[in-house]
């Protein structure tokens, strides 16, 4: 009979796991990116805030309150297809580092259109006709890739 009570208790517990921080039902489900322990989004953000207030330098990662694994972000708003990330280190905004060329290209999208012609000297670019020149490296790379895909 004791085994039956344990089974019933464990099945009801696994169906609605409480947040390990507030011990209440999980609001806005979120996971740490390395260990995937589940918390309320607000609770784990508050945990990170408390931990970061106790150290002198900015955090680049935070230890999970349950297993002490280092994590660099919180995964939340998971809908089965996509999710959002909140990084512990405020300087990290993406999961990758942008090259100088990528940053330059992004600058084009986040600058006013009238301002672009002055900064990037668009008329000079069109006069050089760089866009119309053959790129042998690109041609050979595309040929190899297409051949590999067609086999």
Keywords:
151 residues, alpha+beta, Herpes Virus-1, 2 domains, four-stranded antiparallel beta sheet, two-stranded antiparallel sheet, 44% helix, elongated, disordered N terminus, zinc-finger
Uncertain spans: 1-15
Question: What CATH first level of the largest domain would be assigned?
Answer: Alpha Beta
Task: Report the portion of residues in β strands.
Answer: 5-15%
> CATH-wise, what's the superfamily of the largest domain?
Zinc/RING finger domain, C3HC4 (zinc finger)
CATH topology value of the largest domain = Herpes Virus-1
Structural class: alpha+beta
Q: What's the total count of β strands? A: 6
Radius of gyration: 25 Å
Describe the sheet with the most strands: 4 strands, antiparallel
Count of folded domains: 2
Report mean pLDDT, rounded to a whole number: 75
Give the % helix. 40-55%
Known CATH architecture of the largest domain: 2-Layer Sandwich
In spatial order, strands of the major sheet run: 2-1-5-6
Distance between the termini: 64 Å
What is the number of helical segments per DSSP (H or I, 4+ residues)?
A: 6
Q: From N to C, what is the helix and strand string?
A: HEEHEEEEHHHH
Any idea what the shape is? elongated
Report on the structure:
This protein has 151 residues and is an alpha+beta fold. The protein folds into two domains: 2-87, Zinc/RING finger domain, C3HC4 (zinc finger) (Herpes Virus-1), CATH 3.30.40.10; 100-150, no CATH class. It has helices at residues 2-15, 41-53, 100-109, 113-120, 122-128, 136-150, and strands at residues 29-32, 38-40, 62-63, 70-71, 73-76, 84-87. The strands form two sheets. It has a four-stranded antiparallel beta sheet. Strand 1 and strand 2 form a beta hairpin. 8% of the residues are buried.
